[in-house]
């Protein structure tokens, strides 16, 4: 039995960010940054691969670049049975198809997204969360306070990639693309300045966020940890590693999550 596009378009949506890829001018510096951040950094295919400890999924790759840091492409995971429907949808909506970059996996569907960003749709296992992430609370102590002593505090290690925040020259147009073509749903927005979108198949408050700028780019990758204590310990371990610039600890209004942003060297 075959299904038509109209049969599946209402439930057609990407379920995860399967992988992000950007280039940097110094892979050795990138390794130091992301290992300090608490990720499992591996050498793969001439690039640096980013994993979280205890999880087999590769969340991102860093390529050797020749200039400034640059977002190269994003791969979105889709359910295998939906790939053909996505292909039909791209034809119906007139979305330009592109060749896969030389360093990329050519499988799936390659298309030109907002601001000219290369996007891949690939059949993949769902790695975005289907339920709220775990929350841990440090035990209370009448004598020593609720935080562990510095000598016994363990390094913060992220659990999984939560979301990406991308730059776009036209937030409204980009939002329509991610809704109408990729099936994401609007979580929150503030005028035409910033928008937050989630997957109807389950994700955090947002899987992709869009911020107003003069063109495409990557503002940040966001990684989930299990407690506010881990946010604080992560800020401390990054400062000790030489990465003290950033902002927070704070708490967002939209999404309500605690955060610490850490600036990389680029």
Descriptive key words:
266 residues; 18% helix; 33% strand; alpha+beta
Protein model, in words:
It is globular and about 65 Å long. By secondary structure, the chain is α+β, with helices and mostly antiparallel strands. It contains five helices and 14 strands. Mean pLDDT is 91; it is low at 1-8.
Q: Strand portion, in percent?
A: 25-35%
Q: Output the structural class.
A: alpha+beta
Mean pLDDT reading: 91
Rg of Cα set: 19 Å
Helix content: 10-25%
- The N- and C-terminal alpha carbons lie at a distance of 52 Å
Instruction: Give the strand order of the largest sheet, numbering strands 1, 2, ... along the chain.
Output: 2-3-4-1-5-7-6
Biggest sheet layout: 7 strands, mixed
Spans where pLDDT lies below 50 across 5 or more residues: 1-8
The H-and-E topology, N to C, reads as HEHEEEEHEEEHEEEEHEE
Provide a concise account of the structure shown.
The protein is an alpha+beta fold. The chain has five helices and 14 strands. The chain has a seven-stranded mixed beta sheet, covered by helices on one side. It has a five-stranded mixed beta sheet with strand order 9-10-11-8-12, with helices on one face.
């Amino acid at each position: 039995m075959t299904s038509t596009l109209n049969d599946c378009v209402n439930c057609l949506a990407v379920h995860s960010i399967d992988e992000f890829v950007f280039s940097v001018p110094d892979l050795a510096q990138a390794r130091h940054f992301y290992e300090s951040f608490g990720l499992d950094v591996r050498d793969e295919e001439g690039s640096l691969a980013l994993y979280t400890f205890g999880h087999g999924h590769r969340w991102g790759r860093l390529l050797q670049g020749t200039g400034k840091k640059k977002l190269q492409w994003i791969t979105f995971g889709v359910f295998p049975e939906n790939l053909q429907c996505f292909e039909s949808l791209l034809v119906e909506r007139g979305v330009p198809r592109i060749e896969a970059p030389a360093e990329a996996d050519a499988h799936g569907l390659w298309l030109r997204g907002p601001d000219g960003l290369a996007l891949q749709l690939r059949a993949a296992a769902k790695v975005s969360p289907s339920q709220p992430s775990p929350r841990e609370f440090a035990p209370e102590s009448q004598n020593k306070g609720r935080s562990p002593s510095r000598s016994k505090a363990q390094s913060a290690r992220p659990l999984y990639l939560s979301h990406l925040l991308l730059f776009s020259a036209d937030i409204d147009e980009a939002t329509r693309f991610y809704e109408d073509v990729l099936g994401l749903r609007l979580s929150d927005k503030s005028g035409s300045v910033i928008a937050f979108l989630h997957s109807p198949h389950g994700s955090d408050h947002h899987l992709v966020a869009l911020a107003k700028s003069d063109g495409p780019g990557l503002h940040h990758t966001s990684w989930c940890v299990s407690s506010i204590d881990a946010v604080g310990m992560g800020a401390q371990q990054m400062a000790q590693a030489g990465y003290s610039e950033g902002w927070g600890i704070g708490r967002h209004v939209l999404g309500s999550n605690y955060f610490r942003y850490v600036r990389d060297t680029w």
